[in-house]
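Collaborator request, handled under Task 6.
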Amino acid sequence: MKVTLTVEASEGQLSYVEAEGATYETAKAQAEAQIPEGSKPIAIRTA
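Structure tokens returned to the collaborator:
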């Protein structure tokens, strides 16, 4: 399972974080761990 998060920085700039895992929960947790300080996830996609 692959998860892609759209991440918004405090200045409003968008970026993407991707992670893969055996399950949705594992992939999501790994992606969330990569979110830069001061940013927040605003959308999630799976593949």
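The cover message to the collaborator said: "The mean pLDDT is 96. Residues 24-32 form the longest helix (9 residues). Please let us know whether this matches your experimental observations."
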